[in-house]
Amino acid sequence: MRHRESFGFSGSSGELYVSGRAVLGKKTKEILPQIDAVTIPVIDHENLDRITAETLVEVGVNAVVNAAGSATGEYPNMGPFILARAGVYILDGVGKKVFERLSTGDEIELRGDGIYKDGVLIAVGEHLDEEAAERRLRESRRVVGAALESFAQNTVEFMRHEQDLLFSKLEVPEDLAREMRGRQVLVVVRGYDYRQDLAALKTYLREVRPFLIGVDGGADALLEAGWKPDLVFGDMDSVSPEGLRLTNRVLVHAYPDGNAPGLERVKAVGMETETLPAPGLSEDVAILIAEQCGAELIVAVGTHVGLVEFLDKGRKGASSTFLTRLKVGARLVDAKGVSKLYPSRVSVWQLVALVVAGLVAVSAIVHSSNSLADIFQVLAIKLRLLLGI
Prior knowledge:
Layout: E1 7-10, E2 15-25, H1 28-31, E3 39-43, H2 50-59, E4 63-66, H3 79-85, E5 89-92, H4 98-101, E6 107-111, E7 114-117, E8 120-124, E9 126-128, H5 130-140, H6 144-162, H7 164-167, H8 174-180, E10 184-189, H9 194-200, H10 202-208, E11 211-215, H11 218-224, E12 231-234, H12 241-245, E13 250-254, H13 263-268, E14 274-277, H14 282-292, E15 297-301, H15 307-312, H16 319-328, E16 332-334, H17 348-368, H18 370-387
Parallel strand pairs: 2-3, 3-4, 4-5, 10-11, 10-15, 11-12, 12-13, 13-14, 15-16
Antiparallel strand pairs: 1-2, 2-6, 5-9, 6-7, 7-8
């Protein structure tokens, strides 16, 4: 358990408690910019996913109140275990009425299984510690077969509705198509291990200079890594205002009927934008945009490919992802996990020191032997002739 000013022990009972200012949000991602170490997010997030949990840990929260069940046992979601292992106090399953009894800004105290405001019990849930979170994770892994069977059935069923992805032509603006034609395109989603994989692609980004598409929060991921997106695409539910303002272009993903809930959010920050109607996940449509525009190669970072990742995202099937990969084929390279292929064991400064030490040693040998110096001079002349320099 982390020890910060908001933690303490209640009276002689020795009961652990945590206090702070409540920040209410039924959608966790909407309140992430408002929370820090002195706030307590009150959310309604069934089966808390890994990405959200890691983000909450990064911003330094000490406690989380969840109206829903953080781990229902339907599939092995890592979120609650990540929070509990980091020492975050989780009060789970307190019920939706907590949103009627609390407001953002209220000073609250979590004590045992209860939430208190001004000393009055507001709601009761379950304190989910590391042991309980690990037990739930272990138990959910036993039923993963049933989750996989249901997921496969849903994928086949949804494919009937989204099969147009294979044959339809997307309404991509012509000038955008020209920008991508013949270039390599990097599509970034803020998914599992996106930071590490982007860092591993630093040399590729610097040398190839691909066209950069940030899918929703992927725009912020690119900016965080020091790269400016050429295009932000998606339903705009998780990209920051800065992510919108600092990009070259914004294209809003609309439903097939033309409805685009994200359009107002883009207009609210003063950005010019267009909409592109299409079924399926925004990350899949972004890949299809690059394919239709004639991209030479499409590299994907942070996209969802596994059962747990899709269920974490609230998807009951992977039809659009399956169809997208079927259509794009070998032109798509998934960079997920590339940072784990060749883990760095030697730092840059260690390599520099090794090279310098080697040069010093060679120089010493050369200067101590006239004949060896002549050999090096001849080799240098031959190398220059071969290279034409």
